């Protein structure tokens, strides 16, 4: 037997690891990708494309392209740890500050849109940027069309509908339903193939209704997830109560997932014990989607709202332990 991780928690040479697909967007997906890099070299990010705020929203409105921001963050998370990779990571995340039209635009957003314009292909453009950054993995969009999120919220007993990810994430009130427009967007063949080829799939953490749930609202993508035989892992947020999930417990997050994907089985739910607040239903909620609950310290410090990459990598390693044992890597 060979070990997958060395004494420092880094993946040893000579083993590529399982083929893993991570779904999400923004900072949550970036945290997952930074962790997964420690346990596999076969890594694909499938990224939500509903952002309509900031630099991404402006480029989307002006040029009619997919919002590049979450795609940029996934690429930056996959840069290698050489001077080349780290420098390009910082360049991708750099934002201009001016009194003109470039204000608050991220360089990486402009670079991605430039490659799309030159090559005329979303996936090929992302691949070229990934090669420039020497990324350790592949980045794909959730679908080929820019999406709009519609959310129904209830505040003081009154229901209203807001349009757009930026408003859905920040508008006061409790989210009771979310939808995508268009309802049947085009999906890149590469994205569906990545799901079919996956041996492990990770959903979360992240903005639940605007980064995680949207993947379940794309019919072709949802069907691929439901039919996949991969080990499916859900990583819960460290802070359950955000603007869009006000008063929603961790078990409520799981119940929301089950509502939108009733036929999709999850194998493992990972939760940091410090994130649990008077939630007696958490274990039964996990069981309701077929999952085993794994409690691990994955927070990067007692007061941090960030996931620690090595701690999360260790928890994900445990989640995939059954698969790893089958292929001869049980001594972890």
From TrEMBL:
Its main location: cytoplasm. Belongs to the gluconeogenesis factor family. It is found in: Cytoplasm. It comes from the Bacteria. Required for morphogenesis under gluconeogenic growth conditions. Coiled coil: none annotated. InterPro entries: CofD (IPR002882), CofD-like_dom_sf (IPR038136), Gluconeogen_factor (IPR010119). Gene3D superfamilies: CofD-like domains. Keywords: Cytoplasm. This is Putative gluconeogenesis factor.
């Amino acid at each position: 037997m060979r070990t997958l991780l060395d004494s420092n928690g880094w993946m040893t040479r000579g083993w590529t690891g399982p083929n893993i697909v991570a779904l999400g967007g923004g900072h949550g997906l970036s945290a997952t990708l930074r962790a997964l890099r420690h346990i596999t070299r076969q890594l694909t990010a499938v990224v939500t494309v509903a952002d309509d705020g900031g630099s991404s929203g402006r480029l989307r409105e002006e040029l009619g392209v997919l919002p590049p921001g979450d795609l940029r963050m996934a690429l930056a998370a996959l840069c290698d740890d050489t001077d080349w990779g780290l420098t390009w990571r910082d360049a991708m995340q750099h934002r201009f500050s001016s009194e003109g039209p470039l204000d608050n635009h991220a360089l990486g957003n402009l670079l991605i849109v430039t490659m799309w314009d030159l090559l005329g292909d979303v996936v090929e453009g992302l691949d070229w940027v990934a090669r420039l950054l020497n990324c350790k993995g592949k980045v794909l969009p959730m679908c080929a069309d820019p999406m709009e999120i519609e959310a129904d919220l209830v505040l003081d007993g009154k229901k209203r509908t807001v349009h757009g990810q930026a408003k859905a994430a920040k508008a006061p009130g409790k989210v009771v339903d979310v939808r995508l427009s268009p309802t049947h967007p085009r999906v890149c063949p590469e994205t569906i193939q990545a799901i079919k080829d996956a041996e492990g799939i990770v959903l979360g953490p992240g903005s639940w209704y605007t980064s995680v749930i949207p993947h379940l609202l794309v019919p072709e993508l949802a069907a691929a997830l439901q039919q996949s035989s991969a080990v499916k892992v859900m990583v819960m947020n460290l802070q359950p109560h955000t603007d869009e999930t006000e008063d929603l417990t961790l078990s409520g997050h799981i119940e929301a997932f089950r509502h939108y994907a009733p036929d999709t089985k999850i194998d493992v739910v990972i939760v940091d014990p410090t994130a649990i607040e008077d939630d007696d239903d958490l274990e039964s909620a996990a069981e309701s989607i077929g999952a085993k609950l794994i409690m691990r310290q994955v927070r990067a410090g007692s007061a941090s709202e960030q996931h620690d990459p090595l701690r999360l990598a260790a928890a994900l390693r445990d989640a995939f332990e059954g698969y790893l044992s089958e292929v001869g890597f049980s001594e972890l």
